[in-house]
Design brief:
The structure holds two protein chains of two kinds. Chain A is 33% helix and 17% strand. Chain A is α/β, with parallel strands linked by helices. In chain A, the strands form five sheets. Chain A has a five-stranded parallel beta sheet with strand order 5-4-3-6-18. In chain A, strands 8-16-9-10-11 form a five-stranded parallel beta sheet. In chain A, strands 12, 13, 14 and 15 form a four-stranded antiparallel beta sheet that branches. In chain A, helix 4 packs across helix 8. The mean pLDDT of chain A is 93. The model of chain B has no long low-confidence stretch (mean pLDDT 92). In chain B, 29% of the residues lie in helices and 31% in strands. Chain B is an alpha/beta fold. Chain B contains nine helices and 16 strands. Classes of the chains: A alpha/beta, B alpha/beta. Chains A and B meet through strand 7 and helix 13 of A and helix 1, strand 7, strand 14, helix 8 and helix 9 of B. The structure holds flavin-adenine dinucleotide (FAD) (2 copies), iron/sulfur cluster (2 copies) and FE2/S2 (inorganic) cluster (FES). One iron/sulfur cluster binds next to helix 4 of chain A.
Chain lengths: 473, 282
């Protein structure tokens, strides 16, 4: 048994910034076996409690060691519908890997030594795709003929649709945008989640009989009540946290100050990186500043840097974060990758405003240096601006990635659905049912900004409650 | 079966001085059932295309169709102008935006400029149907670019037409007529849509006169579902998203300077595409 974590193949930094090709190449069988053999097969596998959906990690890793990849696939799929996606985007170092016994007690995220569970999961998921493995359908007769509407096609919607369709429920999935996937499509770039993987998982749903209706905004086109009248026995809302927050500082609406959502949507959903073959433009600056410390900030910065490289502009992209690297909520791997690619970081810096030129384009950002003070409600130490520490940072494109709030497209026209002060939908935590009977919700619209696997976990819980609801009708 | 998003009709409405305005009827029963005055759709011509917003000028729930009227401004609208009956859009979504609040205010002035005349029409009609006394002022560069004159004549109690070059109606700007009207009579609300300088000028006239004024803003949009903030405008010192909070706002509170600048964010790129377009013979 080796003790060192098994290295995973990656594209070299210089090569990868020239395209949107996937950075991590994945384990070959030999490497997966090596990594799986590192697992201690603990009597008390603490890792499982760290996974929001409780995948039997110990078991699937054991199955890998036995080369029973199909078995491992089934084990994972019992809890997680999209291992190829989660294996790529799951912040495992804050979840299962952090809970692995090989992580040192008290560390803020997984130790290097912790088993690379997500990479193994990805290996198994991709094996499932290339071998067209199917999860046995558990069609239940009494559910046949019942129709359920799933609103939103992000991870929550996809998961709920899959679970219900597998049981024989007729599912129609409504999506407001012209493409499905939610954040997986418009937010997370292809170099982290290749589009053929996402499309493959969505095709799988179609094969299960899920009908997809893009360009359909529930609320605007049809109310929930109308859907119920059309015979949808239950409705699941996976609306996401799609509303970008802004800093509320001077000059924030100057030209070329983007929300990360706008920048990423232009680049990923609308393929602005192929402009002019694709027709949606995006402006690429010579000094790009990204404000924030989460995955969104990392994705925006890495896309921005690639656009500079691909357009022959010397790479100059800086992430500005008001705390320090330890407090950054982004996946550790993303931070490391961004740095390798040449993204610069400025910590303990808080934006105070933007200055523009006579045509209204941003030219610089005023900043304040901070120091860390007392912990706030999130337990992280609060950044405190240092008086008189003001300085200016040249910036002709600024991308604000400081958070997302509930997407209120539907709830603002549906007073029957109770929301909290943040606009998040209030649900019964046991069933995920909303204040409207037969209407369930899950994902970021319930918990606020979370992770892909948390969204799927909630959707799964909701799907089980929906099955009970349909069975008792 | 007719396909959602298929083109039922397309015709050139006006063409002069290198500007072309077309009218297009699109099959979309769900949108046709729900559309209300002041709302718009977003469409895409192809998978690689842009998402562009266009006002729903009229809708026919029985036939399941909506009508849009557009001026060929750049690549996407030029593509649209090449579509023929039977073609289908790649994507069509709506109705979007908050509908105009239609009430019985009393005396109302609706002002449309350029292709904004088309955007003003559904609102004018709705005001009239709500029992308002309706004065309409429309303006265009030249006679050949005036649209919907007959339609507006039939809904308005009085219709005033101006052209920049005096080739039809009165020579001058819509604000010239507006100033005269409000000097002679009392009006309860003014609604305007068209080029930014025009809406801005109208708002400054009515602000001085203390008449409530609604403007329909044409901020640049991407998703038009409140997800990106591309369409943000400053109204009364606060940031609003045009696509979901608007597109209508109180004209006296809009930061026009900012809107004007933000609408020019991509002029360089668009010029580039327009060159490509010329090469492709569009
Ligand atoms: C840039 C970025 C990077 C991220 N990276 C990671 C990562 O690496 N790992 C991770 O675990 N998490 C990551 N996250 C978080 C993760 O993506 C979210 O937690 C997850 O996508 C939430 O899923 P959801 O299904 O609830 O919502 P979403 O993915 O937001 O999907 C909601 C969908 O619903 C649609 N919709 C909304 N209202 C309506 C309506 N009325 N009618 C029809 N459709 C509607 C929206 O258009 C959207 O497509 C990232 C988030 C962002 C923004
Ligand atoms: C809510 C809303 C409703 C609209 N309704 C209509 C309508 O009913 N009929 C109509 O003809 N147009 C309407 N517009 C404007 C229309 O969306 C733009 O003309 C269109 O997006 C231009 O796309 P393009 O690719 O052809 O041109 P581009 O190549 O994108 O642009 C060409 C030129 O048009 C300008 N332009 C681009 N977008 C806009 C915009 N949103 N507003 C003003 N100028 C713009 C550019 O600055 C550029 O100079 C509306 C806009 C909004 C926001
Ligand atoms: S889904 Fe995520 S948290 Fe769960 S086991 Fe897989 S990588 Fe770990
Ligand atoms: S805690 Fe770590 S070592 Fe133990 S079973 Fe889980 S993954 Fe293996
Ligand atoms: S167009 Fe994206 S938020 Fe309005």
């Amino acid at each position: 048994m080796t003790t060192q974590p098994t290295h995973i193949q990656e594209l070299g930094a210089e090569e990868r910034i020239r395209s949107f090709s996937e950075v991590i190449q994945g384990y070959a069988e030999k490497e997966a076996l090596l990594e799986a053999q590192r697992c201690l097969q603990c009597k008390n596998p603490t890792c499982i409690a760290g996974c929001p959906v409780g995948i039997d990690i110990k078991k699937f890793i054991f199955q890998i060691t036995q080369k029973d990849y199909a078995g491992a696939y089934i084990t994972i799929r019992q809890k997680n519908n999209f291992p190829s996606i989660c294996g790529r985007v799951c912040p495992a170092e804050y979840q299962c890997r952090k809970a692995c016994v090989l992580t040192k007690k008290g560390s803020p995220y997984a130790s290097e030594q912790a088993i690379l569970i997500h990479f193994l999961e990805r290996f198994v998921g991709d094996y499932g795709i290339t071998h067209a493995l199917k999860i046995p359908a558990a069609s239940q007769n009494r559910l046949h003929g019942q129709k359920v509407a799933v609103v939103g096609s992000g991870p929550a919607g996809l998961c709920c649709a899959g679970e219900l369709a597998r049981r024989g429920v007729k599912v129609v999935m409504f999506e407001g945008l012209h493409k499905t996937g939610g954040v997986l499509r418009y937010g997370i770039p292809a170099f982290r989640l290749p589009r053929d993987i996402l499309d493959g998982e969505i095709d799988y749903l179609k094969n299960l009989g899920v009908e997809i209706k893009p360009n359909f905004i529930v609320g605007n086109m049809k109310s929930l009540h109308e859907l119920q009248q059309e015979g949808y026995a239950a409705i699941f809302l996976g609306l996401g946290a799609g509303t970008p927050s802004f800093l509320k500082v001077k000059g924030e609406n100057l030209c070329n100050v983007y929300s990360a959502n706008e920048f990423l949507t232009r680049v990923n959903l609308m393929s602005a990186y192929k402009f002019p073959e694709s027709h949606t433009p995006v402006n690429i600056g010579t000094h790009i500043v990204v404000i924030g410390g989460g995955n969104t900030a990392m994705d925006a910065a890495r896309c921005a840097l690639r656009l500079q490289e691909m357009n022959g502009i010397p790479c100059d992209t800086t992430v500005v974060y008001r705390r320090t690297e330890i407090e950054m909520p982004a996946r550790r791997l993303e931070i490391a990758h961004a740095r390798e690619e040449g993204v610069r970081f400025k910590f303990l810096v808080q934006p105070k405003g933007f200055q523009g030129d006579e045509k209204g384009f941003v030219k610089s950002m005023q900043c304040l240096q901070c120091e860390l003070g007392e912990p706030d409600s999130s337990g992280r130490r609060r950044p405190v601006a240092i008086q008189g520490s003001g300085f200016e940072l040249a910036s002709d494109v600024a991308i604000i990635a400081i958070g997302l709030q509930a997407n209120q497209l539907l709830t603002r026209v549906t007073p029957q659905i109770t929301v909290d002060a943040y606009g998040d939908i209030t649900v019964d935590p046991l069933t995920m049912e909303t204040s409207m009977k037969g209407v369930f919700a899950g994902g970021d619209i319930v918990g606020g900004e979370g992770t892909v696997i948390e969204a799927m976990g909630m959707a799964k819980k909701a799907s089980e409650a929906i099955i009970r609801f349909l069975s008792n009708r | 079966m007719k396909k959602n998003g298929s083109i039922q009709e397309r015709a050139v409405l006006a063409e002069a001085q290198g500007v072309r305005i077309s009218r297009m009827v699109i099959y979309s029963p769900d949108i046709a059932t729900k559309a209300r005055a002041g709302q718009f759709i977003v469409l895409m011509c192809s998978e690689d295309g842009e998402r562009i917003p266009l006002t729903i000028v009229s809708h026919d729930a029985l036939k399941g169709t909506i009508t849009v009227i557009f001026q060929e401004a750049g690549l996407t609208t030029a593509f649209l102008g090449r579509l023929v009956t039977g073609d289908a859009l790649y994507a069509l979504v709506g109705p979007l935006g908050t509908p105009t609040e239609i009430e019985r205010y009393g005396k109302v002035i609706v002002i449309g400029g350029g292709v904004g005349i088309a955007e003003a029409y559904p609102v004018a009609k709705a005001y009239k149907e709500a029992g308002n006394r309706l004065s309409v002022i429309i303006g265009a560069r030249t006679k050949g670019l005036l649209i919907l004159v007959d339609e507006l004549k039939s809904v308005a109690d009085e219709l005033h037409v101006t052209t920049d070059d005096g080739s039809f109606g009165r020579k001058g700007f819509v604000t010239d007529v507006l100033k005269e009207l409000i000097a002679k009579d009392t009006y309860h609300i003014v609604y305007t849509v068209g080029p930014i300088p025009m809406m801005r000028a109208v708002s400054s006239v009515t602000k001085a006169a203390g008449i409530k004024t609604l403007v329909s803003l044409n901020a640049l949009m991407v998703d038009a579902t409140g997800m990106c903030g591309s369409c943000r405008v400053t109204v009364d010192g606060k940031t609003k998203f045009s696509c979901i909070d608007g597109p209508e706002f109180d004209g006296h509170l809009v930061d026009w300077e900012e809107l004007d600048k933000r609408n020019k964010i991509y002029v360089t790129q668009e010029a580039h595409v327009c060159n490509l377009k010329r090469i492709q013979g569009l």
